[in-house]
Write a structure and sequence with these properties.
The protein has 2 domains: 248 residues, Pectate Lyase C-like (3 Solenoid); 167 residues, no CATH class. β11 and β12 form a beta hairpin. The strands form 7 sheets. Strands 1-2-3-6-27-31-34-37-40-43 form a 10-stranded mixed beta sheet, covered by helices on one side. It is mainly β.
Length: 471
């Protein structure tokens, strides 16, 4: 630790100690050391140099308004020169034993209590959850829903359909842990199997199908099935038995039991900038040349997902009530949802030169200027564009008085997304203004590269204005 000319420099290293005099061990230790120097009166710029290596986070790294910098004295979390620190929200699994799985070589390991996940990474690569059919899709054989008079029925609560013989099996191991992904138009529904009647081929799900069970051409929709133990037949596949706390894996050629690095995600959020949208924000924090990996996310039970661009997915890195904060030359990869999310009360933040890839969802998510339309978030703004007659909203709590997002996303590579939630997009911009989406390379998404605005009628969208999207 040095403090020259009021510039404080801290070092974090994998072999550090948050209680000792040498390098610190964690981002949290660095944050707390900065708080201590601030309490003693220090107000200069701060640089946290982070040595290369793996850092397994036990909880999200949270920064609050008291952790802010200023324009002249920012707080910078930066990789040490020539080194690459990697922050993982996962757990490295060990204790694998050789076994046989359906007559083929396999591995099995006991998983720490309380750990539940839908992704697995072996030697740095994403492995495949079991899937039926192995390629392509099934299609609903017969609808049991009441016919709808609407071409697209958003009020539909269809939770049942009939499949073709052989597509489901009532004897599957842990049937209610089997997942179903149903595709319809530009969105998909995620559900788990609640029941299956082999006599009638009636499948009952624990969540409704968004938009009903028919597509825009009137055909019954397509689907696939995941997390079936009996389908664990190919190298590179895995099955997690949640109730038994066991992971089953079919090793690939070259995987070695003694040396394999096997990581299962345990966190949903890696980094959170937690300011007050109507009060004091988090200001002037910078992250430079850091790598963030491994989160998991599933929709809550009974929640099928979002109707556009998987917009209800949170970010692995979230900013709320943040101003003038920057992610520069950082990597976000192998996460289940969006990489970086800007939520309520953010303004003038930047994502520059970053690499976001191998994403379960999308790249960057910029929420509405005046509220998050996300059911899983606690700060959903339910006010209409103007308060109803007789309803008084204090000016300091009126979301229409919040600043515009004005986020810059520039010179980034954003690719290979939608691996779990296929309707997610490279950059999602809600009813938000003043944003700059410039000079990015975006590829390999199932839906859109950039989705901007949240209005589908031919009228001027006051909130989604003054956005620049440029190559």
């Amino acid at each position: 630790m040095t403090n020259r000319a009021s510039h404080l420099t801290l070092t974090v290293a994998p072999d550090g100690d948050d209680r000792g005099r040498g390098p610190l061990a964690t981002l949290r230790g660095a944050r707390d050391a900065i708080r201590a120097t601030r309490a003693a009166g220090a107000r200069g710029p701060v640089t946290v140099l982070i040595r290369g290596g793996w850092y397994f986070l036990e909880e999200p790294f949270v920064l609050e308004p008291r952790d802010s910098g200023t324009a002249d004295a920012p707080v910078v979390y930066r990789a040490a020169p020539g080194e690459q620190p990697i922050f993982s929200g996962g757990v490295r699994l060990s204790g694998f034993r050789e076994t046989t799985i359906h007559g083929q070589p396999g591995w099995v390991a006991d998983v720490p209590a309380g750990l539940a996940f839908t992704q697995l990474f072996v030697n740095g690569q994403r492995m495949r959850r079991t899937r039926l059919p192995r390629t392509g899709y099934y299609r609903i054989a017969e609808s049991v829903a009441e016919p709808s008079k609407l071409d697209l029925d958003w009020e539909s609560r269809v939770r049942q359909f009939r499949c073709r013989p052989g597509e489901f099996d009532a004897g599957w191991h842990r049937l209610q842990d089997v997942a179903v992904v149903v595709l319809n138009r530009w969105f998909e529904s995620h559900a788990r199997v609640a029941a299956y009647d082999p006599q009638t081929q009636l499948v009952t799900l624990d969540a409704h199908l968004l938009g009903g069970d028919a597509d825009s051409d009137g055909r019954l929709v397509r689907y696939w099935i995941e997390n079936v133990f009996e389908a664990l037949t190919e190298p590179g596949q895995f099955y997690f038995d949640r109730a038994a706390g066991q992971l089953w894996y079919r090793p690939r050629f070259g995987d070695r039991l003694a040396t394999a690095q096997v990581i299962a995600p345990r966190l949903t959020t890696l980094v959170e900038l937690a300011g007050d949208p109507w009060g004091e924000p988090v200001r002037h924090i910078r992250f430079e040349q850091l790598e963030f990996r491994h989160t998991d996310y599933r929709y809550p039970v009974g929640e099928p997902g979002g109707v556009q661009a998987a917009f209800s997915l949170p970010g692995a890195i979230t900013l709320r009530g943040a101003t003038d904060c920057v992610f520069e030359n950082c990597t976000v990869a192998q996460v289940a949802q969006y990489g970086i999310e800007f939520r309520l009360g953010c303004t003038r933040n930047r994502v520059v030169g970053c690499h976001l890839h191998d994403l379960g969802g999308g790249g960057v998510k910029i929420n509405h200027d005046h509220g998050d339309r996300t059911p899983v978030h606690e700060d959903v703004i339910r006010l209409p564009a103007a308060p109803a007659a007789g309803v008084h909203v204090p000016a300091d709590k009126d979301p229409r008085n919040l600043p515009r997002q004005a986020v810059t996303v520039s010179d980034c590579r954003i690719h290979d997304g939608g691996k779990i939630f296929p309707s997610a997009v490279g950059v999602w911009v809600g009813d938000s203004s003043g944003n700059r989406i410039c000079h990015n390379e975006i590829w390999n998404f199932h839906y859109s590269g950039i989705s901007c605005g949240w209005t589908w009628v031919y009228e001027f969208n006051v909130q989604c204005a003054d956005n620049l999207i440029a190559g």
